[in-house]
Automatic annotation (TrEMBL):
Family, as annotated: Belongs to the NAD(P)-dependent epimerase/dehydratase family.
CDD domains: SDR_e
UniProt xrefs under InterPro entries: Epimerase_deHydtase, NAD(P)-bd_dom_sf
Pathway: Bacterial outer membrane biogenesis; LPS O-antigen biosynthesis
NAD-dependent epimerase/dehydratase domain location: 4-201
Protein name as catalogued: NAD(P)-dependent oxidoreductase
Domain of life per record: Bacteria
């Protein structure tokens, strides 16, 4: 099987590539540093012939400025449309688009922004184009992805700041009087899920969140344990409360694949701590 991985330099791609190379002929695609030069903002996108499955990890992550919002829509929505058309034209047999569970957020959510809106539209575009271009499409909606190494820090600054503080034996101060929820899923679990979706040629749209939400205090406790830290945790109750952003787990995809996420937040932090010890 030949697989084209679009967004081939992303952090998730670095976790997925070794897994796919065990059983696929893999080409990476992106604006630079990949086997195939491909920019989702280009007017004309072409992919090589003979590709069985196209996996789209490429994304723009929004912002507040109009130019940032336009770019996010261009990459995440129009880019998906162009990629579906190019895939169909090249004879690809399957396309896997990685969206986000943030697309399910209501517009009143404080976490809803250009990224969420663009991902919501991207899912409709992928399914529409799949139907129009006769291209089987799977859309996966993971929660917040983290993993081992600094590449994941950019998109999960809170999680890595907590680990930094635990590593440095600094006290961890959390704002507000509530203990808000988050949902993190480890990149190794996401990579195995994508690999299984390709192998089973799954079609449809599926949430892909960890079965367990975690609270801020649980995250801090996991970091302290992983780094064998002397840090203490305190809630600054005179500061504004932080809203929760947890998600209920829909097991449909996991049952189809016979694979459930296996790495807890505590285990993920232990993996990161081991990596840092080895690197130091």
């Amino acid at each position: 099987m030949r697989v084209l991985l679009v967004g081939g330099t992303s952090s998730l791609a670095q976790t997925l590539i070794p897994l796919l190379r065990e059983r696929c002929e893999l080409l990476t695609a992106g604006r630079k540093g990949c086997d195939v030069e491909l920019d989702l903002c280009s007017r004309d996108i072409q992919i090589p012939d003979g590709i069985d499955c196209v996996v789209n990890l490429a994304a723009a992550f929004g912002g507040k400025e109009p130019t940032d919002i336009l770019q996010t829509m261009d990459v995440n929505v129009l880019g998906v449309m162009k990629l579906c058309h190019a895939s169909s034209k090249a004879g690809a047999k399957h396309l896997v688009h990685i969206s986000s569970i943030f697309s399910d957020l209501g517009s009143a959510s404080p976490f809803f922004g250009a990224y969420s809106l663009s991902k919501r539209h991207s899912e409709d575009v992928a399914q529409f184009c799949g139907r129009e271009f006769h291209l089987p499409v799977a859309v996966l909606k993971p929660s917040q992805i983290y993993g081992v190494g600094p590449g994941f820090r950019r998109h999960q600054p809170f999680l890595y700041t907590i680990m930094d503080k635990a590593q440095g034996h600094e006290d961890i101060n959390l704002f507000g009087s509530i203990d808000p929820l988050r949902n993190f899923i480890h990149a190794q679990d996401v990579a195995k899920i994508i690999s299984a979706v390709i192998a089973k040629k799954i079609e449809g749209t599926y949430p892909c969140v960890h079965p367990d939400n975690v609270t801020y205090s649980q995250i801090a406790a996991a970091a302290i344990s992983a780094f064998e830290s002397k840090s203490k945790v305190a809630f600054l109750k005179d500061k504004p409360d932080i809203p929760s952003n947890g998600f209920a787990c829909d097991e449909t995809l996991f049952r189809l694949l016979d694979y459930f996420p296996r790495i807890s937040t505590a285990q993920g932090m232990q993996m990161e701590a081991a990596h840092r010890r080895q690197a130091s």
